[in-house]
Amino acid sequence: MNKTVNPNELKPVDDNGPLYAARKKVYPQSVSGTFRRIKWGLMAICLGVYYFLPFVRWNRGLGAPSQAVLIDLPNSRFYFFFIELWPQEVYYFTGLLIVAAVALFLMNSVGGRIWCGYLCPQTVWTDLFYAVERLIEGDRRERMKKAKSSDPLKLERVSEIVLKHSIWLMIAWWTGGAWVLYFNDAPTLVKELVTFQGPMIAYIWIGILTASTYLLAGYMREQVCTYMCPWPRIQAALTDEWALNVTYRYDRGEKRTSVKKAAELRALGQQVGDCVDCYQCVAVCPTGIDIRNGPQMECIQCGLCIDACDNVMAKIGRPKRLIGYDNDINIHRRQEGKAPIYRIVRARTIVYSAIIAAVGGFMVYTLATRSLLDVNVLHDRNPVAVKLSDGSIRNAYTVRLLNKSGYDRAIAIDVEGPVNPTMHVVGADSVTPDRPIIVIPRDSTSELRLLVTAPAENNPEKSIPVRVHVMDIGLGVAASATDNFVAP
Amino acid sequence: MTDHHSDIDSVSGKSTTGHEWDGIKELNTPLPRWWVITFYLTIVWAIAYWVVYPAWPLIQSNTTGMFGYSSRADVAVELANLEKIRGGKMTALGAASLADIEKDPALLALARAKGKTVFGDNCAPCHGSGAAGAKGYPNLNDDDWLWGGTLDQIMQTIQFGARSGHAKTHEGQMLAFGKDGVLKPEEIVTVANYVRSLSGLSTRNGFDAAKGEKIFAENCVACHGDGGKGNPEMGAPNLTDKIWLYGSDEATLIETISQGRAGVMPAWEGRLDPATIKAMAVYVHSLGGGK
């Protein structure tokens, strides 16, 4: 509903004013508690995996890369422990992205922005940079005082600033350094990098990621979440009334009073809110908002205000979780004197879980049952068919054999379609009585020219389907592909 | 012209150029200084460019510039580099015998790739991009060869050509039996039908097979051999198979016998280096018809 505005209250528009509101710098205070501990733990796991995973080894046999996770761009291979993917299997990444997206939706419908608050790289690195800042320059009040101070810079202050930025840059540099290790053998590349013999592209990428980490975690911080990231907008559209979000339970908190006044009023038997307006929830917030204003787009739901409030409640002897994971439905129920209800299992969480299970299951199934031998057949286009001197018809095909396994294979080729065809593979010197045999080295592809001739008396009148069978003569593994046999 | 700096437009407060059209004055909005400076710098740059690089056309040639640069010299350097990069492989190809190339998968792949490219550049205009040929230009995919289909024979044909004027070229041609008055028109019709009968094609009513055989024996056997089986030494096609270079219908055969045929295959020796010709021979042989 539009409210009617008194024209006298309208402010004149300042045409020469700035287009954008200036950022109010945030100085989050340190806090301890359950959610802070969870965040430290998750930060250690995330950074630990990111920084050290390239050094994990995985034995794939002689001549194959021994790095557990490796994106081998020059050879177009992706290695993940026991999985090796070829470029044409890139659809597994599509499946992975679907699972990731729906997992994000599921998190959102269960516990709000869990990703944003605990797992997002922007949050993790910003949290780390804040920790460094706090360690060197002191807590919220000291940092605010130092930032406001107009005193001339003293040596002590200068050394603080230099130290902070040096540590930031070192973290940022290590972040960029770890990134390039995913694209090359890590121990070898580290050795090359420190002796300045690494490839130029590695140094360039380290530079880019050092700069982006330093800027995003050191300077832009919560602005990335508020202005650059699409997820706050998307999640606002995906959420529902049952989703648990970091919520100020105003049914308990209002009306706010001071500690002393609250005690007096309670003594008189009056109803008083638990919030004592101490602003600790605001002080610890890394995005600089007041959670008591309700759910906001800026809120990354890191839960630090819960810890801050719990600490205060403990001190003033009131129950914890004045701020907690909750929703508006329960606030209203409590206001009406009913018990709160939590519905984790509901239509959307079931559907999301089902999608994750279906896509994940399909991926695991296809990955487990995928063939390590494959064949593609492409009919010659010019000429499509050749008439030989005795009147028989010959068709030529380009056959590509793929051997994805870690050993060489001897492959027999067979053709099904024309009656009594004769076969010839250009370059196949080992030919058993009726079928050519080709050796394909491990983890590679081989392109052959296959000639199929139908005798004159069996000339097909028109195009007929032809199936090319290939079989590993040692293991019996087979694959096939279809094309056509064309009459001129 | 008035001093435009003294003439200030009352609405905008800016000076005018002093130019006035129907009472409308033009505001003086000079180009930004950085733009003007950049513009003059480009002029200076252009003049310097004329001096150091080839620039001005003369009647016979052009100015060469102080640096002596030429894009053709650049190409020569690039080609030399390419040759250096490929040196090892192409040298190995040039050193190997034709039979060895076909046995070595790596050399075979290289020869086929190289041959395919060179074929597209040099042979496709006549033989077609897929070597399927056309009327008068043999299909190289089939197993019928005018001058022989072994690796060595194919290589020889590519090297020296047919009726190419090269000293070692394949000689021999289809004579013009009608034009030169060797055979009378009705004899040509008879022998044309006889040739059709050799590969099992139908003959016209009243065709005298014995007469045809006699004419054939007297005029054609010298090149095409007994029974018309052909002779690769002479480039004389096999007349008993299903493949016809110019066509097998009666009219075409009569034309062939009357007017003669002498298609030309150019000699490639000297135009292509020996390793490339080798690659081409292997490629053509591997198309499927090689013997």
Automatic annotation (TrEMBL), chain A:
Gene Ontology MF terms: 4 iron, 4 sulfur cluster binding; metal ion binding
Domain of life: Bacteria
Name the UniProt record assigns to this protein: (Fe-S)-binding protein
GO cellular component, one term: plasma membrane
Gene3D superfamilies: Alpha-helical ferredoxin, Immunoglobulins
TM annotation in the entry: 40-58, 90-107, 161-182, 202-220, 350-368
Organism listed in the record: Bradyrhizobium nanningense
Domain 4Fe-4S ferredoxin-type: 265-294
A Pfam family per the record: Fer4_5
Keyword set, alphabetical order: 4Fe-4S, Electron transport, Iron, Iron-sulfur, Membrane, Metal-binding, Transmembrane, Transmembrane helix, Transport
Matches recorded under PROSITE patterns: 4FE4S_FER_1 (PS00198), 4FE4S_FER_2 (PS51379)
Automatic annotation (TrEMBL), chain B:
Pathway(s) it belongs to: Energy metabolism; oxidative phosphorylation
Pfam families attached to this UniProt entry: Cytochrom_C, Cytochrome_CBB3, FixP_N
Residues bound to heme c 1: 123, 126-127, 265
Cofactor(s) the protein needs: heme c
The Cytochrome c domain, residue ranges: 110-199, 207-288
Stored InterPro entries: CcoP_N (IPR032858), CcoP_N_sf (IPR038414), Cyt_c-like_dom (IPR009056), Cyt_c-like_dom_sf (IPR036909), Cyt_C_IC (IPR008168), Cyt_c_oxidase_cbb3_su3 (IPR004678), Cytochrome_c_Oxidase_Subunit (IPR050597)
Keywords, sorted A to Z: Cell inner membrane, Cell membrane, Electron transport, Heme, Hydrogen ion transport, Ion transport, Iron, Membrane, Metal-binding, Oxidoreductase, Repeat, Respiratory chain, Transmembrane, Transmembrane helix, Transport
Cofactor binding note of this UniProt entry: Binds 2 heme C groups per subunit.
Transmembrane segments: 34-56
Residues annotated to bind heme c 2: 174, 220, 223-224
Compartment(s) of residence: Cell inner membrane
Cellular component aspect of the GO annotation: plasma membrane
Positions in coiled-coil regions: none
A GO biological process held by the record: oxidative phosphorylation
Function: C-type cytochrome. Part of the cbb3-type cytochrome c oxidase complex. FixP subunit is required for transferring electrons from donor cytochrome c via its heme groups to FixO subunit. From there, electrons are shuttled to the catalytic binuclear center of FixN subunit where oxygen reduction takes place. The complex also functions as a proton pump.
Subunit record text: Component of the cbb3-type cytochrome c oxidase at least composed of FixN, FixO, FixQ and FixP.
Family: Belongs to the CcoP / FixP family.
The name this protein goes by in its record: Cbb3-type cytochrome c oxidase subunit
